[in-house]
Structures are given as structure tokens and as C-alpha cells.
Design goal:
The complex is a heterodimer of chains A (117) and B (305). Chain A has 117 residues and is α+β, with helices and mostly antiparallel strands. Chain A contains five helices and five strands; from the N terminus they run H-H-E-E-E-E-H-H-E-H. The longest helix of chain A has 16 residues, at 4-19. Chain A is globular and about 35 Å long. Chain B has a six-stranded mixed sheet with strand order 9-8-10-11-12-15. Classes of the chains: A alpha+beta (117), B alpha/beta (305). Chains A and B meet through helix 2, helix 4 and helix 5 of A and helix 5 and helix 6 of B.
């Protein structure tokens, strides 16, 4: 089990990697979205806001997210630290993502652009 | 008579059966769609295994090639593994040979492709051979893999960047459920209207639009102005669709039988049945030699002004 602070740190690492990747910022200039990340086994909720190609992280839950990412604390921190890709936990049901198929696919691509081979 | 069947995740509306003579031997070539029903495709493959001479897998790729690297799509492998006796192919072997040849032929014998021609490839990792051949003759390339697969409006403009992004993404993308990255079943009969509008300029700015027909169709806007489409699988309805959109010329890499061109998986299955070898023992040169003996030529159809 990971702690709230570990999840927060993994999400911040992901945020920093996104924001320092100029190509990724260009790719996502058109994609303004709110993404909530929730742990199932501990109290830990964060919200990402992606606007004009810049990603911002804050603690707590937004009212009307476009995407909600739900998993246990260990999987969340593994995925956002880049220790595992989101595909395997998504396929085996450990990681759930609520939102449109297009948004889910795009989020997967972003993760892979940051952490891929 | 030899029997070749293509089992496709695509729409049953495109089902078709013809009898053709290849090198003096009669072939019954059939295409059976499953409307995106993965389990139905598995059942059908098991039913056909051992009863036909070769099977093609349609509406899905199994292998994607990026130069020498090969990536296997997990859903495609599951389908392939359902067939134990009959040779089964996905068309990737033929794409890598035939489509390179077609590009070279079009450049040498027609004015459709030349140095500086603006080409949009809606997806290139499923036909890397065509992408390389187009780049080699000096076409000005726009690779739309991220645009039309993930909705990311980022055109890839060079082979180097295409290779880098493909090698970064494909090891994991190939594990995703296939329907998330490619239109299967009923999606093949409709257009994604919001993306048609959003990405129309990529189509309008190109002189040639190349690649998988289902992707080309799903995102093609109105108001095309005489562009050339370079693809493989088309029906007579597809040709009418292209004409209405304003397309000028259709080039299909596989030959026409009774008003439509079959997918490369079907043609590769027919070639495997002729060669009588195991698929993994067939070389690119085997395909090339056979294509020359069969005098395979691309079909070039003028649709408008």
C-alpha cells in the first residue's frame, strides 16, 4: 500500500514531466480536461486540470471531471511514477477509468509518451 | 478448387464471394464479417480451421513492422492462435512487399506520385513499407497516426520521428483492446463527425491520402478537390462515397474482382495457398516472384475531374 504523500509525489512527478515536454504540450494544446485521480484503499483524491497544454495538480476533488481514474494506492503510484504502464492494470481491471473512450485512449497515449520505451 | 476465406472484425455488409483463376487454378475467395464481435470471429476461425486452404484475418492487424522491429497486437494474436491447422495470415507480409512495389510503379509509370507530392498517411505503422517507399521517392509526408488513432492533432512529418514515436508507443498500444485504436464493426459504416470537422484541413491540404480505407473513410470531409486515394479494400459503395466527397482518383493496391478489391489479408492468404508453404517460411522474395508471375497491377480508377 502506498501513502497519500507517495501518490501525490507520483502525480507531481508526472505533472512535471508533462510540463517540461514541449512536444507533449504542443500535442495537447486543444485538449482542456479535468481529471480526478482516486485511491480505493486510502483517503487520497487529486485533480489535474489540463488547459492550453499546461497541466496543473491540486489536492481534492473537482465537481465535474471529464475523466476519473480509480485504483488502489500502489497501482496509482506505480503508474504515475512510470514503474508500470497503465495498459496492463487497465486490461486486468485493477485500474478503472471513467470517461469517453476517446479521452481514455488519449490519456493512455500521453502516459506512454512520457514513460514509454 | 482451393478455398480461401477472410474472417473480418468488420461489417457483414462488406461480405463477398468470388471465384477466380490464378495461375490456371480455380480459387473461391470469400470474406466473412463479424460486425466487431470478437467471440464470433474466434468461433468462425475454429469452424473453418482444417476445412479451407488458407485463412486471412481482416479488420485487425496481427503484426506491425517498424523497419526490422515487429510488434504483435495481442487481440490479433488471440485470433491467430485459434487456428491450428490451416495457414492463417493478416496481410502484413504482403503489405510490406506489394505496397512498396505499387508506390514505385506509380512513381515510375504515372504522374500520381513524385518528389514533393503532399501525402497524408492516415496511419502508417500498419503499412510501414508504403510509408518508407513514399518517403524514399521524396513525397512531402504527413503521418496521421496520432491524429486519427488517438485524436491528438500532431502531424508527424519525418520518418525519424515516426520511428521514434512508434517504438515508444507500440510495445504497449498493441496490448490495448483493439477497438480503442481502430474502428471495428458498425463504426466502419459511419463517420466520426466531430473529428471530420476538426481534422478536415489535413485532408484538404494533401494531394494524396494513403493508408487503411476504414480510417480514410471515417474521417474524410466533404469538399475534397480531386485528391488521389491510395488504399486497398474498397467496395462499389465506397467508390460512390469517394466520388460524392470530391475525390479525383482511386488507386487500390490489390486487384479488382467483381467490382471490389479485397484486403491484403485475403490476397496474402491466396498467395500462401498457391505457394503451399508454411507462412513463416515464405520470404518477401517469394511474394514478389509470385506477384510478378500473376502480373498483379494496382487498379487506377478516375472518379472525377
Amino acid at each position: 500500500m502506498a501513502t497519500h504523500l507517495e501518490i501525490k509525489d507520483s502525480l507531481q512527478t508526472f505533472t512535471d514531466n508533462f510540463n517540461k515536454n514541449d512536444r507533449l504540450k504542443i500535442m495537447n494544446r486543444d485538449w482542456n480536461r479535468v481529471v480526478v485521480v482516486k485511491a480505493t484503499d486510502i483517503e487520497s483524491i487529486h485533480t489535474w486540470t489540463l488547459k492550453d497544454g499546461v497541466l496543473a495538480l491540486k489536492e481534492g476533488e473537482a465537481g465535474d471531471p471529464d475523466l476519473t481514474v480509480i485504483s488502489d494506492s500502489e497501482t496509482l503510484s506505480d503508474v504515475f511514477y512510470g514503474d508500470v504502464t497503465p495498459i496492463e492494470p487497465y486490461n486486468n481491471g485493477t485500474l478503472r477509468i471513467m470517461g469517453s473512450e476517446d479521452d481514455i485512449t488519449r490519456l493512455d497515449f500521453i502516459c506512454l509518451m512520457i514513460w514509454g520505451e | 478448387m482451393k478455398r480461401v476465406v477472410s474472417v473480418s472484425l468488420g461489417s457483414t455488409k462488406r461480405d463477398h464471394k468470388v471465384t477466380v483463376k490464378l495461375l490456371g487454378e480455380e480459387f473461391e475467395i470469400a470474406r466473412m464479417g463479424t460486425d466487431g464481435d470478437f467471440n464470433r470471429a474466434l468461433e468462425l476461425l475454429k469452424e473453418l480451421d482444417g476445412k479451407v486452404d488458407a485463412i486471412g484475418l481482416g479488420g485487425i492487424d496481427v503484426y506491425l513492422f517498424v523497419k526490422e522491429k515487429r510488434y504483435a497486437i495481442q487481440d490479433g494474436l488471440k485470433l491467430m492462435d485459434a487456428v491450428k491447422i490451416t495457414p492463417v495470415v493478416d496481410g502484413s507480409g504482403l503489405k510490406n512487399t506489394l505496397e512498396r512495389e505499387v508506390v514505385r510503379m506509380l512513381a515510375a509509370e504515372t504522374g500520381l506520385l513524385k518528389k514533393g507530392t503532399r501525402v497524408l498517411m492516415v496511419s502508417s505503422v500498419d503499412r510501414f513499407g508504403m510509408a518508407e517507399a513514399l518517403a524514399e521517392i521524396g513525397c512531402e509526408m504527413t503521418f496521421g497516426d496520432l491524429i486519427f488513432t488517438a485524436g491528438i492533432p500532431y502531424p508527424i512529418m519525418t520518418m525519424d520521428e515516426l520511428e521514434e514515436i512508434a517504438n515508444r508507443l507500440l510495445p504497449e498500444i498493441t496490448k490495448m483492446p483493439f477497438h480503442l485504436v481502430y474502428p471495428t464493426g458498425k463504426k466502419q459504416e459511419s463517420q466520426d463527425e466531430s473529428k471530420v470537422q476538426k481534422f478536415a484541413h489535413f485532408y484538404h491540404n494533401a494531394e494524396v491520402i494513403a493508408g487503411d480505407f476504414h480510417l480514410i473513410r471515417r474521417f474524410m470531409p466533404s469538399g475534397m478537390n480531386g485528391q488521389t486515394i491510395l488504399t486497398n479494400t474498397t467496395t462499389s459503395d465506397d467508390i460512390e462515397f469517394l466520388r460524392e466527397k470530391g475525390v479525383g482518383t482511386l488507386v487500390t493496391t490489390t486487384p479488382e474482382y467483381e467490382g471490389r478489391s479485397f484486403g491484403t489479408n485475403v490476397m496474402e492468404a491466396a498467395l500462401v495457398a498457391i505457394l503451399g508453404k508454411q507462412w513463416d517460411q515464405i520470404s518477401a522474395q517469394d511474394y514478389l516472384d509470385l506477384l510478378h508471375r500473376l502480373n498483379f497491377r494496382p487498379r487506377i480508377l478516375k472518379l472525377g475531374t
